[in-house]
Amino acid sequence: MDSPSNLPSREAALKLLARYNSNRNLFNHMLACEAVMGALAQRFGADEAKWRLAGLLHDIDYDQTKDDPLRHSQVGADILAEAGYPDDVVYAVRVHNDVHGLPRLSRMDKALYAVDPLTGLIVAGALIKKEKDVRLIDTDFLLKRFKEKSFARGARRDQIEACSEIDLSLEVFISIGLEAMQAIAPELGIAGK
To answer: The organism sits in which domain of life (predicted)?
Structure first.
């Protein structure tokens, strides 16, 4: 992927991420968010490299802050600002945690907020299938599961439904996310046994 000269490369982002993250499941979550954010950027004609970086790095501080939600995303945004990431990427990372009460201003901010729990919902959908393969589920399956309160409890439905803030229906949003994650299923470890 070509990046504008002022935007850190994906390779640099992965190196930075490796300094702060030791959890493979969390890393996979961030890869999934990167893929979905890239698909959304393509849909909206936005800066795909930037959106992908926001998705990839949004939980960079989670190993440090998982027990302190009031610090989560603030620490991560500070890490990214210090590393020279663009202000809009830093801000999107900062506001993806709504505990801070900061407004989501840009389409990228709003997309990242909704994408974060969507990836968990999709992974949960794959894992309840005996094959454990995300490529074997579809949007209708996930829409049905979305309505079940006991399914993927950690995937906040109100946050996923915030896709309306970027003018996408829940069905279209889930479909975009699912297709993006299916495309990298082996890398995410949800490509069956």
So the answer is: Bacteria
* Burial class (CB within 10 angstroms; exposed 0-12, middle 13-18, buried 19+) of 52: buried
- Nearest alpha carbon to residue 15 among 3, 27, 26, 5: 27
At residue 143's C-alpha, the angle toward residues 130 and 126, to 5°, is 25
In CATH, the number for domain 10-188 is 1.10.3210
Give me the pLDDT at residue 1, please.
Answer: 37
| Token pair 């992965």 in the structure block, residue | 14
Q: Are 40 and 51 in contact (CB under 8 A)?
A: yes
> What would the pLDDT profile of 77-97 be if each residue is shown by its tens digit?
999 999 999 999 999 999 999
Q: DSSP labels for 90-158?
A: HHHHHHTSGGG-----SHHHHHHHHHHHHHHHHHHHHHTSTT-BGGG--HHHHHHHHT-TTSSTTS-HH
SS3 assignment, position 84 = coil
